[in-house]
Amino acid sequence: MIEQPNLNYVNELAGDDQAFKDQFIAIIKNEFPLEKEEYFGHVENLRVKKTAEIVHKLKHKFNILGMENSYKLAVAYEMELLEGKHNSQSKFVEVLETIDEYIKAI
Asked: SUPFAM superfamilies from the entry (predicted)?
């Protein structure tokens, strides 16, 4: 089962600054769908190095959203890709879909 994203880190970082929190969330809501789309484009076109690069970028969003296990999965998946493997792809996609649903709801 995939862990659920949360805003604990964002809340801790923002403290009482609601404007900062709102801006941070807006950035995530803006960037994540584009990065997710970029990921699928690279996968579809078999651009392994570019796929690894976007996985590297996306893993930081996992961390921000309190998804420690998903972050570790992304680290492993990035290394797999650089070795020409993609064993963790389906789990990674599941994490992307989980985050996508979450950010639509916040």
From this structure: Histidine-containing phosphotransfer domain, HPT domain
- Total domain count for the chain? 1
Q: Percentage of residues in the chain with pLDDT exceeding 90?
A: 98
Q: What is the pTM of this model?
A: 0.93
Q: Map tokens 């570019």 to a residue.
A: 50
Query: Is residue 2 assigned to a domain?
Result: no
- For 88, the domain range is 8-105
Tell the residue number behind the tokens 């690069």, with chain if given: 53
Q: What CATH number has the domain bearing residue 53?
A: 1.20.120
Among left, alpha and beta (phi > 0; psi -120 to 50; other), residue 23 is alpha
For residues 15 and 98, give the distance between their C-alpha atoms in angstroms, rounded to a whole number.
Answer: 26
